[in-house]
What does this fold into?
Amino acid sequence: MADHETGLPGPADTGLPALLGAALREGEVDGEAERRAVAAFVAEFKAARDAGLRPAPTRSQDDWRPRGSAP
It folds into this structure.
């Protein structure tokens, strides 16, 4: 849980959600926390990519490409 006075992660907060939450809190920007959050996101993204996980297909209503141009 986050410390309610500072909004910073407490002892129970670990992992990507805690790092991203700390980077997005209002107030002064903590550059080091932001760097850690981005590094954690990139690591998770690369792990998913290397594991062969594929992104969900684009829904037709979200696809901005002209009809028939999708692979």
Summary: Residues 31-50 form the longest helix (20 residues). Helices lie at 15-24, 31-50. The chain is about 40% helix and 0% strand. The chain has one domain: 1-55.
